[in-house]
Amino acid sequence: MTILIKNGTVVSPTGRHDADVLVDGQKIAALLQPGSDAAASAESGAEKVIDAAGKYVVPGGIDAHTHMELPFGGTFASDTFEIGTRAAAWGGTTTIIDFAVQRDGENVRESLDAWFAKAEGECAIDYGFHMILGGVDEAALKEMDNLVGEGISSFKLFMAYPGVFYSDDGQILRAMQKASDNGGLICMHAENGIAIDVLAEQAAARGQTDPVYHGITRPPALEGEATNRAIQLALVAGAPVYFVHLSASEALAAVAAARNDGHNVFAETCPQYLYLNLEDHLGLPGFAGAGYVCSPPLRTREHTHHTDLWRGLRTNDLAVVSTDHCPFCMKDQKELGLDDFRAIPNGIGGVEHRMDLIYQGVVMGELSLERWVETCSTTPARMFGLYPQKGVIAPGSDADIVLYDPNGSTTLSVDTHHMSMDYSAYEGVEIDGRVDTVLSKGKVLIADETYHGVKGDGAYLRRGLSSYLL
After folding, report:
1. Are residues 307 and 444 located together in one domain of the fold?
2. What is the DSSP-derived secondary structure letter of residue 210?
3. Helix (H) or strand (E) segment spanning residue 69
4. Is residue 468 part of a domain?
5. For residue 382, which of 13, 113, 129, 397 sits 20 to 30 Å off, Cα-Cα?
6. Do 197 and 160 form a contact (C-beta atoms < 8 A)?
7. In terms of domains, do 357 and 269 share one?
8. Cis-peptide, bond into residue 240, ω within 30° of zero
9. What is the pLDDT of residue 301?
10. Model pTM?
């Protein structure tokens, strides 16, 4: 089908301009000058015309950090690939990169195949995979080479969760050395898990079992320490490193210092660290704070709406905004930790709200419109080997396009979201602006407040190497 999107303002990381966008099949065919003979000819020949007057025309969002159906703490993340990717589409995200999980003692290839089986034929939007390495041994290191060749070019390691995903410094160094050889990118969960477990055990022994102690026993200093340590290991290995879900000023300072010295060190943050905090959310009375348990934890108010993370997004010390989408219901899931915060499944659902929440940075004057597009779409595409297929509105790129209405509004609520959760971490938050129309590879998924897609619209993405490392 040929579609002409006319009268809109196309936004890229380098600027904004009025342009009509011609879509032919799954690809963007041309950007045309409004009112030109070429635009008039395209309109007369198009099978569908979408009027984007007063709206921004932006590349579909790319959420590079999701956990659909993740097994954790005796349960599973409540969003299936079908439900979670449909919710993503409602929020203007047209690509996710999820994490396939290998635990210590498991075969990497068999673990990856299990994730392919979960996602195949289920997704509303395109998807790729990172590989979590929960056990770094000779077999896993060999598979890293194979996976890079097969389009899975990034690997997540954990300095947290001893006994579950934890890798020690030696294992991390060996994986980084392998990445240095094969061009892969190490994605690091940087918290000092050994020290955190001591603090958590001591708190529980004192009877301090409420959800707020999840945050208190994971202090920002231990994120900062682990971040600095991982950077030093990466420098020794000669490898790049990408820090996932950075939450603390101490960690950001370590990343900024390394980047100032010219090293290939990158980081993302998440909306929850920009908007939610320990006192008002994680520290809610009774068990209500369990809905805000995630790792790293929500930080104190001084870390929320503070200048550091927003400034990091402006300066590119924080290159990407992802969600770490890992939803659990309160009933029967978060409640597993009713008597002990250590048993609360870690995760917050947010894949549907990322584009809206970060657009509020534009409204507040924290980010430019161009930087919103860059952090939510273009840089994730470049960082994870999808550019220029994704992340840009340009001839030849996939027709993943969002029409965003800056004059619209919406209120976030469990009553209206499309994620499989019985609460909303952003209940009652009012958004200036709204997703109006969403196209994925030229197919209209969202329009007129209606979902027009079907299960299986999305396809697996074979990724290349990061554009930032070549």
Report:
1. no
2. S
3. none
4. no
5. 113
6. no
7. yes
8. no
9. 84
10. 0.97
164, 134 contact by CB (below 8 A): yes
Are residues 77 and 187 both part of a single domain? yes
Say yes or no: 136 and 263 in one domain: yes
Cβ–Cβ contacts within 10 Å for residue 332, how many? 11
| Same domain? 264 vs 328 | yes
Look at residue 211 in the predicted model and tell me its pLDDT.
98
The C-alpha atoms of residue 251 and residue 187 are separated, in whole angstroms, by 15
CB of 230 within 8 A of CB of 243?
yes
In whole angstroms, what is the distance from residue 324 CA to residue 295 CA?
9
Is residue 165 within 8 Å of 103, Cβ to Cβ? yes
pLDDT score, position 432: 98
Residue-wise over 53-66: b if at least 16 C-beta within 10 A, else e? eebbbbbbbbbbbb
Q: What is the structure's pLDDT at 303?
A: 62
What span, in angstroms and rounded, lies between the C-alpha atoms of 344 and 354? 24
**pLDDT for position 173:** 98
pLDDT at 73: 83
Looking at the fold, whether 169 and 28 belong to one and the same domain comes out as no
Cα dihedral angle (335, 336, 340, 341), rounded to 10 degrees?
-70
- Say if residue 181 is in the same domain as residue 321: yes
Token pair for residue 359? 């657009």
Q: Whole-angstrom Cα distance, residue 373 to residue 392? A: 9
pLDDT of residue 306: 59
The list of the chain residues with pLDDT below 50 reads none
**Structural domain of residue 24, as residue ranges?**
2-58+391-406+433-451
Q: Do 6 and 122 lie in a common domain?
A: no
Q: Residue 341 maps to which CATH number?
A: 3.20.20.140
Alpha helix segments (H runs only) across 183-270: 193-205, 212-216, 220-237, 249-260
Residue 462 resides in a domain: no
